[in-house]
């Protein structure tokens, strides 16, 4: 990395809990749909080690916590021994390069269909309202509303998945509470229509998310747990009438568990510096100020606004999705201010083991 005087803010070191990071450029979780039959494949070693740097922080693609968790085909899982065994060499290879690796644990909830569910059953959710058929070009099936007494077993799925992730060698887990998947289905009032103590008001809507966090923290310890949220996202028909209040409530509530980081998706555009202040139509500043641990932002960031976010203390770390996907050597390119490969959306989520994720060129040495 560059000498101190030339160091851009994104390339400065940072201590995230007990992890010494050498820079602030995080690999965002990126689904690849190439873990056939939900088992991580050896070619994942190539993808993750391409993006691993000494002291860098990587978050895995969304990984299913149970056989009911899949929303896309060939998403990796972490609920069977076979999956844990398959993850081990991938995690080991990332560690050999000196990077820190968290597993993003996920349940898709209603963002699924019969074909992806065990025995072709209905996907589960907080509601029985389905996604609009054909939304995002997918074939969604109407969900089945979880009974109150079934909820502890889903929380247990997250707990076991976290335990398995640690057994596979991951440094921690990121609980996926974003983008309209199960946890967010509970949190958002556009989706949650429950009348038990998991719905009806903000506190009740956030109960499931916080019970998952509590269960995972109790199992593997707060220093190994992060959470991803997207209060402003309206994707998967999961909007909320008061995202500011939701985000702030969660940031404050998460402090009670002492989790190591909160990772929040910036909706539509990034923080822009105006008169020495960071402003955005959907500012994350109140959440950033409320949360006591490491704060990660993501969503549309470039080198320039990532640097501004760090320099202005808007965030501690910045996660890059599409840019890191298309530029396996993103930290080096940022260091040199080198041109970037353009990502090719037509190759996202393809089942091929190589095309679209591990075939982007590196800079010449
Ligand atoms: C191909 C692709 C797959 C994604 N998969 C996931 C995922 O598994 N989990 C998740 O939380 N977000 C996922 N995202 C969202 C990214 O992590 C990120 O938040 C989003 O792309 C915005 O950041 P960017 O502008 O830097 O790409 C995905 C995005 C893309 C483009």
Automatic annotation (TrEMBL):
Pfam family, one: Oxidored_FMN
UniProtKB keywords: Flavoprotein, FMN, NADP, Oxidoreductase
Cofactor(s) annotated in UniProt: FMN
Top-level taxon of origin: Eukaryota
GO molecular function: 12-oxophytodienoate reductase activity; FMN binding
GTP-binding among keywords: no
Keyword Iron-sulfur in record: no
SUPFAM superfamilies on file: FMN-linked oxidoreductases
Protein name: 12-oxophytodienoate reductase 11
Naturally occurring in which organism (per UniProt): Herrania umbratica
Name of the encoding gene: LOC110418382
